[in-house]
Amino acid sequence: MKSEISTRHFSQLLSATPRGARLARLLAVQQLGEWGWPHGCAVSESAGLVVAELAANAVAHGRVKGRGFRLTLTVEASDTLRIEVADPRGDRRPLARRTASPTDETGRGLLLVDALTARWGSEPWPPSGKVVWAEIGLPRPVLTASVSATQLSTGAVPAPEAAS
After folding, report:
1. Rounded CA gap, 75 and 35, in Å?
2. Which of 20, 32, 99, 103 meets the CB 3.0–4.6 Å disulfide criterion with 37?
3. What is the predicted pLDDT for the residue at 153?
4. CATH number reported for the structural domain that contains residue 122 in this entry
5. What pLDDT is stored for residue 102 in this prediction?
6. What does the pLDDT read at residue 5?
7. CA-closest candidate to residue 52, choices 75, 35, 74, 69
8. Is residue 143 part of a domain?
């Protein structure tokens, strides 16, 4: 008997530059659209912001000359989106700040990640790097009459309805 694999996976190596960080966000939003969460929906907006922050941190704090960073998106069992950004600087692990003063000009990015995700953290990425990951809970799809038989038979998750 053939079993269905319901994992969706995307991975891309990008340059450790501001342009690479911007491209990471754009690619993530595009990939999510292909998976059924179109640009502008809550999942796409949250994931885009999280990817932007983690990629910007990889460029600012994880950069090693001549080496890039890797963006990975994984949807497992249609209920969790895992975002991973790996960079070569394992000695600079992120620390979440719990407060920021009104005069702080930096340091709020991981507060944003914390607010938009179910959980996040970091772990070593051998041989010398780190992976900063975040997980976003995905809403259960609402099955409507517009869901096609093809979507149901292939296990495709319909896009969440956009709020008007």
Report:
1. 9
2. 32
3. 39
4. 3.30.565.10
5. 73
6. 53
7. 69
8. yes
Question: What pLDDT is attached to residue 108?
Answer: 77
> What pLDDT does residue 90 have?
72
* Alpha-carbon span 133 to 118, nearest angstrom: 11
Dihedral class, residue 99 (left if φ above 0, else alpha if ψ from -120 to 50, else beta): beta
Average pLDDT of each block of 10 consecutive residues along the chain (164 residues)? 66 96 98 94 96 95 87 90 92 67 73 92 89 92 46 46 44
2 found inside a domain: no
- Tell me, yes or no, whether 79 lies in a domain: yes
State the pLDDT at residue 96: 62
Tell me if 29 sits within 8 A of 52, measured CB to CB: no
Residue 16 vs residues 57, 68, 115, 135, 150: alpha-carbon distances, Å: 10, 5, 25, 23, 40
SS3 83: strand
Q: How far apart are CA 55 and CA 21, in angstroms?
A: 5
Residue 137 falls inside a structural domain:
yes
Integer Cα distance of 6 and 100 in angstroms: 40
Task: Count the domains in the chain.
Answer: 1
Predicted local distance difference test score (pLDDT) of residue 49: 97
Host domain of residue 60: 8-154
Which two tokens mark 164?
């008007």
